[in-house]
Amino acid sequence: xxxxxxxxxxxxxxxxxxxxxxxxxxxxxxxxxxxxxxxxxxxxxxxxxxxxxxxxxxxxxxxxxxxxxxxxxxxxxxxxxxx
Length: 83
Fold this sequence. Notes:
Blueprint: H1 2-9, H2 12-22, E1 24-31, E2 34-41, E3 44-50, E4 59-66, H3 68-81
Antiparallel strand pairs: 1-2, 2-3, 3-4
């Protein structure tokens, strides 16, 4: 909980730098033709969309989920709505 509070207070650029330094890159997925990068930071899961779908570029958007259960529910819902 403290991590999410601390993390959410950072600027978008600093959140991404922190993720790339301290987080674990879990993989990518495609949504609406965009590549979304998924990171894990303890029990916090973060999706990042980068400019030009390239992790070397600046981040455009970031969204957070707390806990593996929430991540699973979110991804299952995303999968169901994609068909």
